[in-house]
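This follows on from our talk about sequence and fold. Can you supply me with one protein entry, sequence and fold together? Could you add the entry underneath, on a fresh line?
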Amino acid sequence: MTTLQQVIEEAKIAGNKAFIPYIMAGDGGLETLKPTILKLQQMAVTAIEVGIPFTDPVADGPTIEQAGERALAQGVTLRKVLEVLASFQKEIQVPLVVMTYFNPVLAFGLEAFAKACVAGGVKGLIVPDVPLEESAVLCDTLNPHGIDIVQLVSLTSPPERIARIAAASQGFVYAVTVNGITGARTTFANDLHDHFARLREASQIPVLAGFGISTPEQVVNMGSLSDGVIVGSAIVTALHEGNLEKIEALVSASKDVIHKSTL
């Protein structure tokens, strides 16, 4: 069992849902990366998704795109982020999942990137512009280093593709809960019950819900359909505003979901 999968399963055994916050590395300066990760770790999150700023973030909504622009303005790069992670790797106790696009990885060099990920405590990788059919290049290089390649599945994926993605994903299946880019939502599709039921039946590993989840109630409701949630824009906004109480409320909502759901 992979490290990512193991921590998600451990949360389930404890009666909780996995909670993975997304952060934009270098938003506020690279010097904020270590205290942010250690603070989230203290809040007992399951893992942390570390976003890498990119000039053409096709999957990101305005909040995360603006955070990426702030980080890029500070000169943040994939290489610099991994160097900072390596500098305090022994203090990192939760798995890190890097979310980036393929061009920075290709420019870094796949093998060099894999080794830098290991040095930085990275256990998983999400690359939204590399489809399932082309992901072997990542798996072949990173899997031998113990790094999972997490696959995303959309609401519009037909059953046969859902099955293929579920079989190929590692660590967990990233179930996108909306059609479109990231960003807080007030409503979700009415047929998510059926969609997640199909996903969980097809998958032998945990299924986590992400995109659009921004309130404690949504954490509870999406958690009731899945094995956990990924929260991005709301976390990025809260960190930018210094609102740690909001983050704590979101993390707290993932505990004991079975007794809280309003679905």
Q: What stands out?
A: The longest strand covers residues 18-24. The beta strands are 18-24, 48-51, 96-99, 122-126, 148-149, 151-153, 173-176, 207-210, 228-231.
